[in-house]
Design brief:
globular; Cupin domain-containing protein; about 45% strand; about 150 residues; mainly beta; two-stranded antiparallel sheet
Length: about 150
Amino acid sequence: MEHVEHVRFGEQLYAIIVRASFREPGITFFSSPELSQQLAFMSHPEGKSIAPHRHNKVTREVHFTQEVLLIQKGKLQVDFYTEAEEYLESRMLGAGDIILLCSGAHGFHVIEPVEMFEIKQGPYAGENDKTRFREVPASEIRVKGPAL
């Protein structure tokens, strides 16, 4: 799918980017069952009904936080790093784009004023939830994919 990018480094999936231009009828799942965060796009015609339902109590084991960012407005640069804190490369996100950050490490630079939603497992554990480290110098940034 040209509007979907699976960002991989080696065999490891770091992120799934779905561009604002993605359109498919029905339900399209982007995440695989082993991920702790599910990402899907749904497009239904007028008159379609989805049966009332509730979600059952299911015990799940989550070892690492995975997060989804939905860009409402602006431009955001996502920088990918290994878990050993080595810079890999970057991607640019614009209004309507969505990213599921699956593994590795990441940082962000706001290129144009941004408004976005963040969705991830909770509750937020404050500083115990993450390890901060030094970002890559701007001179070493390599943006792959559409420049937007």
